[in-house]
Amino acid sequence: MAILVTGGSGYIGSHTVMELLEQGEEVIVADNLRTGHQAAVAGGTFYHGDLRDRAFLQQVFKQHQIEAVIHFAANSLVGESVQIPLDYYENNLIGSHTLVSVMLEHGVKKIVFSSTAATYGEPNRVPIYEDDPTAPTSPYGETKLAMERMFHWCDQAYGLKSISLRYFNAAGAHLSGKIGEDHQPESHLIPIILQVALGQREHIAIFGDDYPTEDGTCVRDYIHVMDLAKAHWLALEHLRKQNQSNIFNLGNGKGFSVKQVIEEARRITGHPIPAQIHPRRAGDPAVLIASAEKARRELGWTPQYSDLETIIKSAWSWHQAHPNGFQS
Ligand code: UDP
């Protein structure tokens, strides 16, 4: 039986596909290639199509015996979602709705879901635990939370078992050097900093230095993409064994400010990486740090690559070898 990975050509999706293949799983990828790269998919069977296209999905489910779905395909940028909320509602909610209804039509009742720390919004305390209140500050977080809730009600009604993985800040690149982060245009902090070090940008814009944090810049919990990929496989195994819905935070439990990340990148790249202070970006909470105790305890997940040095070094190797991403 196969595992269907939606959005498997994206950044976290492609690293998860690699992990699943290493674990000996049969992998099917469905992706519309709007933001992903087919070259990032290390193996398995690839289908080019959109989740909102029911006929396309039905074809995929007819061709293969699908055991479970790992669902990444979605729009995923906090800042952008504040600018174009309707796109997020349409792609994220209608895509997931169509996916789940076709899954149920074919009797597929296991899903691992790519969720986000953005479901919490501005937290009341850090680290954040899974049962802390959710109050998203962006349409991105809001649509991801709505999808989690849809899965919850589909469990009650139809026995759909879901594991939602709430990622904090995915970063770094595969240590094999074969795949890494490639967004066009790039909006994430670490790759943008490294583009400055590569001479592709003049400076890094720091979005706000008046947050209630030690140095005034936002604090995030950076987690290596290979550790995230491993967590998806563990979640799949957990669904196979326990067949119970659940929610897990995936983070490192440590926070770094934007300024600290820039400083570490200066040390690793040897480049001065000039920085300028810009206004805040809409939708950004000041501090997001995970408690990932539950994932460690119940999934047996142990992040191995998530110290800031390994994250930035692996990303730096990828960006140096692929200055234009997968087109290099
Ligand atoms: N950030 C920044 N300059 C940039 C990109 C990001 O100051 O050019 C900040 C952003 O405001 C946030 C943090 O870096 O506080 C991480 O942003 P990113 O977009 O990488 O991830 P997000 O937290 O939105 O998932």
UniProtKB/TrEMBL annotation:
Pfam families named among the record's database cross-references: Epimerase (PF01370)
EC number(s) recorded for this UniProt protein: 5.1.3.2
Biochemical pathway: Carbohydrate metabolism; galactose metabolism
Protein known as: UDP-glucose 4-epimerase
Organism of this sequence: Brevibacillus fulvus
GO MF terms held by the record: UDP-glucose 4-epimerase activity
Family: Belongs to the NAD(P)-dependent epimerase/dehydratase family.
Enzyme class: isomerase
GO biological process, one term: galactose catabolic process via UDP-galactose, Leloir pathway
Reactions the enzyme catalyzes: UDP-alpha-D-glucose = UDP-alpha-D-galactose
Domain of life, source organism: Bacteria
Coiled coil: none
InterPro entries reported for this sequence: Epimerase_deHydtase (IPR001509), NAD(P)-bd_dom_sf (IPR036291), UDP_G4E (IPR005886)
Domain NAD-dependent epimerase/dehydratase as annotated: residue spans: 3-251
Keyword line: Carbohydrate metabolism, Galactose metabolism, Isomerase, NAD
